[in-house]
Amino acid sequence: MTKFSDLTRLPDARGHFGPYGGRFVSETLSFALEELEKTYLSLRDDPDFQAEFDRDLAQYVGRPSPLYHAERWSRQLGGAQIWLKREDLNHTGAHKVNNTIGQALLAKKGGKPRVIAETGAGQHGVASATVAARLGLKCDVYMGAEDVERQKLNVYRMHLLGANVIPVESGSRTLKDAMNEALRDWVTNVDDTFYIIGTVAGPHPYPMLVRDFNAVVGREARRQSLEQIGRLPDTLIACVGGGSNALGLFYPFVEDDEVRMIGVEAGGDGVETGRHAAPLSANAPRGVLHGNRTYLMSDEGGQVLETHSISAGLDYPGVGPEHALWKDVGRVEYVAANDSAVLEAFRELTHIEGIMPALESAHALAHAKVLAPTMRPDQHIVVNLSGRGDKDILTVAKIDGVEF
Amino acid sequence: MNRIDQRFATLKEQGRTALIPYITAGDPAPEHTVGFMHALVEAGADVIELGMPFSDPMADGPVIQKACERALKHHVRLSHIFDMVSEFRRRDSETPVVLMGYLNPMERMGLHDFAEQAAGSGVDGVLVVDMPPEEADEVAPLFKEYHLQSIFLVAPTTSESRAATICAHGEGYLYYVSLKGVTGAATLDVSEVDRHLEPLRRLTSLPLCVGFGIRDGDTAAAVAQVADGVIVGSALVSRIADNCERPERATEELKALLSEMRHALDA
């Protein structure tokens, strides 16, 4: 049995989290990944690098983000106290920027004049375009053609920031296909290009470094809980697509055995219908995609399945390898929230607290809504409000039958 | 002796360069694949690389992506591919067949079943594009057990220490990726290829075969100056793409292109 305290020592030297993770890439990329790993490991404990990262997070992103007590909503739900970690208040409106700030610093250290990124909901694309603008780097963002359609506002934001958005027409035309295309670009332009991966997936060392850059969320939340609640929270809840905001929140709490952690995947029409994006909750088989081994939704022939979710950012058939391990060892519970429950949570938080969450984050809220009433008022739940909902207004309007 | 080693030994005796065509199994439809394979042999193929279609072929360019999509429309599975190789073997017991593809379908089938059935159908070697030697711990012993040769890629970006690891694990031949990019990409620079092959010769006695960017007799002949074999994929697959509705025509075009290369190599 893996002790939970061992979990913080992963990945191993080869990038494995138990049976998951690794570096399953074609040979051309091996060198670039080795180089990136070396650069990152040398900078990780470098006080100057950390100071630069912390300064950017404070002065450019606006950290620390508040831990907000949603008193009115808690009262209405009639159970545990709900606290929102307000990543939606970050510059660019989501947790994604923590990671892009970090990776942009790595790109700068590596002397690469061009960055590329994949994006689903567009939040990571916007965050990449933003740091590229600030550092004067050329930026190309790959985005599934279907997502370009449903996230028009973010597409235009990226355009205004000077990035070039490339719609991807292959496969299911969503996040996984954008990632395929970004990897193809990187293989071709590996000499002058840095690939800013937006989630805790991909080949080693990406799952590790994206986690580390996002762990600021959990470090702050832990400190803020001690200050504002007077103790650690009972439960943490975060949505999981690739899983970067969840890992960011959970990682600094991993050794706090008394803190329960719940990852909420995209249940789409319902896990039982097969139309979802919840590989962990559905107990999908192990598989290899985008450079790592993980739980992966694939058919009996090993072909990757199309996923379904109201939120473009969670519409991904795999999940970060560290989550896969945390599921197996029982450190984190993984559940799914269906599209309808997500929409309800989206509307409820907007009405009751005046905070419009991203549809991704509304998955975590939907589960908080289920869980809170089963708990006592002296118990505390921290929900990662990973992004703001402005980008989703057109999606919700369409569901409401409103056209602009 | 394995068919691949046998074939390269013979070619070496004859002083000839290996010609290795690639097609995707089941493209444009499963019933054509075995016919294409025989046609390729008639036109001068020394080894056949048969692609195992995958939904997310991230190392492939648009030509082979579309070939995978066409094959997957017919729900081509690994078991069908083994049937194709068995059928091919009824008329051809000599030409080596190498399966090339991605790890996920193999893992989903079960690596042991994959190795057993591949070997049973007459497959000689396997190239798993997204499995570098560092990740081959589980696969390599199974392939050894079933006498399937592990073919590995070497790229222009491969460092010397990695090249040594790859050469230590590689069997059959080394697949040198002639340029940075995906399959079917731009043109290649022969002197640059030569510069990279030279240190590999000191590391291994495996035949060095070059792929990516070879599209006609001239490029094949140029690469043959420096390599033991030339691999051609996208150029052939696009002939299939152009003639999806006319398989006989596709067969003729495959043969014409491969013959042109064979003549250029043997000239």
From TrEMBL, chain A:
InterPro entries, per database record: Trp_synth_b_CS, Trp_synth_beta, Trp_synth_beta/beta-like, TrpB-like_PALP, TrpB-like_PALP_sf
Q: Which GO terms describe its cellular component?
A: cytoplasm
From the UniProt record, give the pathway where this protein acts: Amino-acid biosynthesis; L-tryptophan biosynthesis; L-tryptophan from chorismate: step 5/5
Task: Decide whether keyword Lyase is in the record.
Answer: yes
E.C. designation(s): 4.2.1.20
**Keywords, alphabetical:** Amino-acid biosynthesis, Aromatic amino acid biosynthesis, Lyase, Pyridoxal phosphate, Tryptophan biosynthesis
Cofactors (names):
pyridoxal 5'-phosphate
The first-level EC class reads lyase
Reactions listed under catalytic activity = (1S,2R)-1-C-(indol-3-yl)glycerol 3-phosphate + L-serine = D-glyceraldehyde 3-phosphate + L-tryptophan + H2O
In this chain the Tryptophan synthase beta chain-like PALP domain maps to: 62-387
What superkingdom does the record give?
A: Bacteria
MF (Gene Ontology) = tryptophan synthase activity
Residues that the record marks as modified (N6-(pyridoxal phosphate)lysine) are K96
* Record-stated family: Belongs to the TrpB family.
Q: How does it assemble?
A: Tetramer of two alpha and two beta chains.
Q: State what this protein does.
A: The beta subunit is responsible for the synthesis of L-tryptophan from indole and L-serine.
Name under which the protein is recorded: Tryptophan synthase beta chain
Q: Which organism is it from?
A: Modicisalibacter ilicicola DSM 19980
Q: What is the lineage of its organism?
A: Bacteria, Pseudomonadati, Pseudomonadota, Gammaproteobacteria, Oceanospirillales
From TrEMBL, chain B:
Q: Which reaction does it catalyse?
A: (1S,2R)-1-C-(indol-3-yl)glycerol 3-phosphate + L-serine = D-glyceraldehyde 3-phosphate + L-tryptophan + H2O
Q: Does the keyword Lyase apply?
A: yes
Q: Which domain of life is it from?
A: Bacteria
Listed A to Z, the keywords are:
Amino-acid biosynthesis, Aromatic amino acid biosynthesis, Lyase, Tryptophan biosynthesis
A GO cellular-component term linked to this record: cytosol
Quaternary structure, per UniProt, is:
Tetramer of two alpha and two beta chains.
Entry-linked NCBIfam families: trpA (TIGR00262)
Name the record gives this protein: Tryptophan synthase alpha chain
Task: List the lineage, top down.
Answer: Bacteria, Pseudomonadati, Pseudomonadota, Gammaproteobacteria, Oceanospirillales
